[in-house]
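User: I'm preparing a small set of examples for a lab meeting where we compare how different chains pack in three dimensions. I only have the primary sequence for this one, and I'd like the structure in token form so I can line it up with the others. Please keep the answer compact; I'll paste it straight into my notes.
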Amino acid sequence: MTGFINIDKAVGVSSAREVAVIKRLTGMPCGHMGTLDPMADGVLPIGIGNACRLFDYFLTKHKIYLATFRFGADYDTLDTTGTISAEGGRVPEENEIKSVLPAFTGDIMQVPPKYSAKSIGGRRGYDLARAGVDFELPPKKVSIYSIELIARRSESEYDFKIECGGGTYIRSICRDLADKLSTKAAMSALTRQCSGPFTLGSAVKSELLNKENISSYIIPADSVLSFESAHVGGNEQKKLLNGMSVPTQLADGAYKIYLENGQFYGIGAADGGRLKVKTKLC
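Assistant: Understood. Below is the structure token output for the 282-residue chain.
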């Protein structure tokens, strides 16, 4: 039993808890592909068994979020689950916000939140922050493809649609957007609508799963990888399975490798006329 489950995570539930549910139902090692904070909901792809080895191939995939930013106060966690650290900031008008949004698209440098899973000296940022340790996180380059103000939810809250690459912190966008407008803000809601090939429309709530039906929700690993296929057999197959490279006429790049019995074996790379397995699943 291997592949992916596209979970629709609920608000108030940790990503680790969702992984534990799938692990219990499948009896296999499992892991999630990009954590969602407990306050967030939406798409949480979970790898089952050796499919977890494929996570690196999804790291830079396109993600779509619906986020709500509340203006007028600052929170230590950069979201409204934390403690208010500053009040009295003004609430900007819609036209002001729209005027600065272009500054937040493209490849930009972003400082992650201190309350995050970022590792500093072997410890998670959120553990250090909760312990009152003073530390700084270095900025990192992230890709934001678009950010759109779509509605005013309340007197102090606005809804945004954000399309970005992997590793982007929506809470950091909220912080930096407010700073650009000379005020304060925190994220008050977040829904992930899409993570690479996994979309909210095809996601399932974990409470609907059981040992009898879970196999029908497992997505085959090769079906969500966009690489072209390479079929091997005979002596070439034997050499590849033993870690050797074989001659190929394939163009350089990554390929899904299938054995002569039709089984999906893993990901290989063609380079300079040679094909070699890079990530095997069986």
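A couple of notes for your slides: Residues 227-280 form a domain with the Archaeosine Trna-guanine Transglycosylase; Chain: A, domain 4 fold (CATH 2.30.130.10). Residues 107 and 187 are 22 Å apart (CA to CA).

User: Perfect, thanks.
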